[in-house]
adenosylhomocysteine nucleosidase
Amino acid sequence: MLGIIGAMEEEVAELKRRMEIEEVSEVASMSFYRGKLEDKEVVIVRSGIGKVNAAVCAQILIDRFHVDTLINTGIAGSLDAQIDIGDMVISTDAVEHDMDASAFGDPVGQVPQMDTFSFPADEKLIKLAKEVNERINPDIHTWTGRIVSGDQFVASSQVKERLIALFGAKCTEMEGAAIAHTAYLNKISCVIIRAISDKADNSAEMDYPAFEELAIRHSVRLVCALAAEM
């Protein structure tokens, strides 16, 4: 079973329109839509924004719906000058950038007492998502790399430069690493897919609303095509 998580209603509304809905369940104030997308058994849900919402949502998908693969779709701010607004980033791994126990000697981003610094994506899913996106969205570039997540919308050049220096990530958002963390603990496969909506700097507040719709369109197209290939 495939679980597909989006943070905002706009991100999942089009996916719901494209699926055959068989059942709707309300759990933890979230609506879980079970049915078929591209003839595959899926559960689609809006997690809400932020790491706690995302982690709770992912665990419900695992415990109640018995999903064995998680795809987190959505939008993000670019942390790489080569990545343009509209491009797609597919995670190789994810880090919680606002985790800071450095006072105890851990690097920033390290969850204390965890056996890993970053939470890896499934290698087969990375490869498949990249190949599918290059085919289905040929008008944009496809990137793979680290994604960082934290409970803040990054709209400051100073914060952006700090994230680049600390993590060497491709983009930043607010949910993916929490979902990857949950998948890691439960030993299931996961990949984060992010369409770039802004540059995560002083222009972010202006760029985000203008490019959100385009970013979501590319993301939905990729998720549907990826489901069909799985």
